[in-house]
Design brief:
Layout (H helix, E strand, L loop, with lengths): L3 E6 L20 E7 L3 H12 L4 E4 L15 E3 L15 H24 L11 E4 L5 H15 L4 E4 L1 H8 L7 E4 L2 E3 L2 H15 L2 E3 L6 E5 L2 E6 L2 E10 L14 H4 L3 E10 L4 H4 L8 E4 L5 E5 L6 E5 L8 H15 L8 E11 L6 E5 L2 E5 L5 H18 L26 H16 L3
Parallel strand pairs: 1-17, 2-3, 2-12, 3-9, 5-14, 12-19
Antiparallel strand pairs: 4-8, 5-7, 6-7, 10-11, 11-12, 13-16, 13-17, 15-16, 18-19
Length: 437
C-alpha cells in the first residue's frame, strides 16, 4: 500500500490556512527604508517602522512569506536553543545571560503581537519536550536548567522516562526536559496576521520583485529590480537562509556568514479520533537532543501529526524525503504504520558558525540572520529590534544579538559544499551513541 494519499501535495500543509500572496503592487520611486525579504523578520521590521510613521517598502523575490516563515514546524519558545552546540569557544556567562534574557523578551513580544493585533493562528501554549536520545543527555540538560529558568524564564524541569512516555505517547526517549514557556502555532497563519498588521500600519509590500543590484549613493541607496528602481535612505537585508547565489553581488559578506540547510516536513492524513488520542496526549511540541533532530507536534485541531527533520543532506525529491520521515515517525509511534501522508515539503534554515542569531549594520545598511531553525519568535524579535535601532539612530547595541556579522571561515564562500559529508558524520555519531542505550 502506498504511504501517500490520493491527493498528495508538495505544498506545505500550512498553506491551507494561509497561502503566500503575490501582492505585486506598484513600486514607489522613493522610500525611507527598503527591506529585502518578506518573512517574519522583514515583516516585523516593517510593522514597527510603519507604526512609527516611517515610509517602508518590503520586496520579495517570490510570493510574500513563501520561505521558511510558512514552511516551519511552528514551535515557539524563548531561549531554549541559544548557543546550543556552539562550535567555537563557549559563550561567557554574563553574555549568555544577556542572550537568554533577550530571547525571553522575544517570546514576550510574540505573545504581545498576537494580542495587540488579534492574530488567530492556533496558538497552544502547552509546552515543549526535548526527548533524551540517550540517558547520558540528562546530565547536560540538568546543568542548563538553572540559567534557563533564571534568565529565559523557561519554567523547565526534567522528566524521567515514565513521565516523558505519558506526555508523548511513546517510550522512544530516555526521559526528557519539559519547557513550559513554549508552545506551537500555525506558522503560515501567524505570518498572515503579521503581514496584515504591517499593511494596516502603512507598510508597502511587493512580491515577485527580486533585487538585482544595491548601489550606494550620497545619502542613501539605489535598489534595482526587474520591475523598476527605488531610491531608499536605508536598506535592510532580511533574507536569512535565502541569501543565496542571487545575492553573491548584493551582500557577499552576509552570504559567507550563513550556512543554508534544507529541512523537511510531512503532514499525515486526518487521524481517526481514537488513534489521534494516543499520539502526544498532552499536546506538547517535541524536539530531540541528538545532533540531527526530528521535531513534531499535532495540528491545531489535534487530528494530524506534523513531523519534520533533516531527512537527507543530499538533494532528494519530496516523495523520497517523505518516505524517510515516515519511517522515523513510525519508529517513534508504531501505531501510525498504516497512516498515509497528505503533504511533504522542504524549507531552508540558516546556521552560523557560532550557533547564534545576529543583527547589525550601519551607514544605512542593516541585516538580521542566523536563527538555527528556531526562528518563529527570534526572527520576529530581531526584525522588531532592528526597527528600534533604525528609529533611534543609535550606534550602540540595541540588544545582545546586535554584534555585527556572524563569524566566517576562509574556505567558505556561501555554498554549503560540505553539508553532505558533515551531515552524514552527525548521523553516524547519533546512531553510535544510541546503540548502547
Amino acid at each position: 500500500m502506498s504511504i501517500f494519499t490520493e491527493d498528495f501535495s508538495t505544498d506545505p500543509w500550512w498553506w491551507q490556512g494561509f497561502r503566500p500572496p503575490e501582492a505585486t503592487g506598484e513600486l514607489p520611486a522613493r522610500v525611507g527604508t527598503l527591506v529585502i525579504g518578506a518573512g517574519y523578520a522583514g515583516t516585523a521590521c516593517a510593522l514597527r517602522l510603519a507604526e512609527a510613521g516611517e515610509e517602508v517598502l518590503v520586496v520579495e523575490a517570490g510570493a510574500l512569506g513563501q520561505g521558511a516563515s510558512t514552511r516551519s514546524g511552528g514551535q515557539v519558545s524563548g531561549g531554549v536553543n541559544v548557543g546550543k552546540g556552539a562550535s567555537r569557544k563557549p559563550v561567557p556567562g554574563h553574555r549568555k545571560a544577556a542572550l537568554l534574557r533577550d530571547a525571553a523578551a522575544g517570546f514576550t513580544l510574540f505573545e504581545t503581537l498576537l494580542e495587540r493585533h488579534q492574530i488567530r493562528c492556533g496558538y497552544h501554549r502547552t509546552g515543549r519536550i526535548n526527548g533524551f536520545w540517550t540517558p547520558a543527555h540528562a546530565a547536560g540538560w540538568a546543568a542548563r536548567l538553572p540559567e534557563l529558568n533564571e534568565h529565559a524564564r523557561s519554567d523547565a524541569r526534567l522528566l524521567d522516562r515514565e513521565e516523558a512516555a505519558a506526555d508523548l505517547g511513546t517510550r522512544f526517549y530516555h526521559g526528557g526536559v519539559l519547557i513550559n514557556r513554549a508552545g506551537h502555532i500555525q506558522p503560515a497563519e501567524f505570518f498572515g496576521g503579521l503581514l496584515a498588521a504591517a499593511m494596516r500600519a502603512g507598510a508597502c509590500f511587493a512580491g515577485g520583485t527580486p533585487v538585482l543590484r544595491v548601489q550606494r549613493l550620497p545619502g542613501g541607496y539605489r535598489v534595482e529590480t526587474p520591475r523598476g528602481t527605488v531610491q531608499a535612505a536605508r536598506v535592510v537585508f532580511a533574507t536569512n537562509a535565502y541569501t543565496g547565489a542571487a545575492a553573491r553581488g548584493l551582500a557577499p559578506e552576509l552570504r559567507r556568514s550563513l550556512v543554508p540547510v534544507t529541512t523537511h516536513m510531512i503532514a499525515t492524513e486526518e487521524l481517526p479520533e481514537a488513534l489521534a488520542r494516543t499520539v502526544l496526549p498532552a499536546n506538547r511540541g517535541v524536539s530531540e537532543t541528538r545532533r540531527v533532530i526530528s521535531h513534531y507536534r499535532l495540528s491545531p485541531d489535534g487530528r494530524r501529526l506534523l513531523f519534520g527533520g533533516r531527512a537527507s543532506f543530499f538533494p532528494l525529491e519530496e516523495r523520497r524525503t517523505a518516505a524517510l520521515l515516515h519511517r522515523a515517525m513510525v519508529a517513534r509511534f508504531p501505531q501510525l504504520a498504516g497512516v498515509r501522508i497528505s503533504n511533504a515539503w522542504g524549507g531552508r534554515v540558516a546556521m552560523t558558525l557560532d550557533r547564534l542569531p545576529h543583527l547589525g549594520g550601519g551607514e544605512g545598511r542593516f541585516f538580521v540572520a542566523g536563527c538555527q531553525g528556531s526562528g518563529v519568535t527570534m526572527m520576529t524579535y530581531l526584525g522588531h529590534s532592528l526597527a528600534e535601532k533604525i528609529l533611534s539612530g543609535r550606534s550602540d547595541p540595541v540588544n545582545a544579538y546586535d554584534d555585527g556579522l556572524p563569524p566566517h571561515h576562509p574556505l567558505y564562500d556561501g555554498t554549503p559544499w560540505f553539508m553532505p559529508v558533515l551531515g552524514s558524520w552527525y548521523q553516524w555519531q547519533d546512531r553510535r551513541e544510541r546503540m548502547p542505550a
